[in-house]
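stage 2 :: seqdesign
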């Protein structure tokens, strides 16, 4: 039986994960759920957001379904998500962005760059080491090329004209793209940010470093319509983690108005990873039909609660005979 580490987290995390689980159940997904109490709430209680034992228990699972966790600006707090990505070597972050204006997949390196964790904080100066390796660049380029081989073309996003560490990233990505026979170009990250707003149709698959990918995918979510609509997969060679790209949104937590689409689509991406394509597609299609009927949460200008939107998705699945 498939074994899934369930991390609801805090803020709106438990609310959207609840919606994702309801949709998975309606789709007939069968798996063992192992729930983890990790994150900001636990850190406030006992000073530890996640432990070594938690990591080892996660490694005993096939993958992780993740809600959202608050990361406070406290020097003593280490990001739970970054630690999980590093410990499980989830090096490829895949973020699809689709709407009437845009159809892009951002492939983001997930374990190095400016999120290396190599930092020095002083009273007069603070430093973060930006780590770019040939191995990290090569394997993320290979993931991007495999995705691009089934689509149109690849764009390598960088800032090699200023950041000399990006020279290695760009060179390595070019080499991999040529080896795969992928049609590709490259673009400076600031130009890419501009063109995503002005001409998003020019992009297909984008591959980039950690921080650039983080920023561009949030920009893309704005073009799509809301952070709440977007899902992601964090993939390694052995494990995977699936999560909506939004944060914990503590200002609306508990109000029942969080948009669950990102979490629901993340659950569908998990099904795809397990090879259950038909179930995954039924979920994506039900979400699309629900939104097209004007059933929306407040972030999209609608009046639906999280639960009401989830009910509508499940109703669409039933009408289509998917549950």
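stage 2 :: out
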């Amino acid at each position: 039986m498939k074994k899934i580490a369930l991390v609801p987290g805090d803020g709106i995390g438990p609310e959207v994960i609840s919606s994702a689980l309801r949709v998975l159940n309606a789709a007939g997904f069968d798996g063992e759920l192992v729930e983890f109490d990790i994150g900001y709430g636990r850190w406030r209680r006992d000073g530890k957001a996640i432990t070594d034992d938690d990591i080892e228990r996660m490694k005993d699972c096939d993958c992780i379904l993740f809600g959202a966790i608050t990361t406070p600006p406290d020097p003593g707090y280490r990001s739970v998500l970054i630690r999980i990505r590093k410990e499980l070597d989830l090096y490829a972050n895949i973020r699809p962005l689709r709407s009437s204006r845009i159809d892009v997949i951002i492939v983001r390196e997930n374990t190095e760059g400016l999120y290396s964790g190599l930092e020095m904080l002083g009273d007069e100066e603070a430093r973060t080491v930006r780590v770019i390796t040939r191995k990290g660049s090569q394997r993320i380029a290979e993931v991007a090329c495999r995705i691009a081989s089934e689509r149109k073309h690849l764009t390598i996003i960088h800032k090699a004209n200023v950041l000399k560490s990006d020279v290695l990233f760009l060179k390595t990505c070019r080499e991999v793209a040529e080896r795969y026979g992928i049609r590709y170009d490259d673009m400076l990250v600031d130009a890419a940010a501009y063109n995503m707003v002005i001409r998003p149709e020019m992009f297909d698959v984008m591959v980039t470093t950690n921080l650039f990918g983080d920023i561009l995918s949030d920009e893309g979510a704005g073009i799509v319509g809301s952070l709440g609509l977007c899902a992601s997969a964090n993939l390694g060679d052995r494990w995977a983690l699936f999560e909506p790209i939004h944060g914990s949104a503590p200002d609306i937590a508990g109000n029942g108005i969080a948009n669950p689409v990102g979490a629901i689509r993340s659950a569908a991406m998990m099904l795809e990873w397990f090879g259950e394509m038909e179930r995954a597609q039924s979920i994506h299609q039900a979400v699309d039909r629900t939104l097209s009927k004007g059933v929306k949460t407040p972030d999209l200008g609608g009046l639906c609660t999280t639960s009401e939107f989830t009910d509508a998705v499940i109703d669409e699945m039933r009408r289509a005979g998917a549950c």
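stage 3 :: structure notes
- The longest strand covers residues 3-9.
- Residues 1-91+227-323 form a domain with the Isopropylmalate Dehydrogenase fold (CATH 3.40.718.10).
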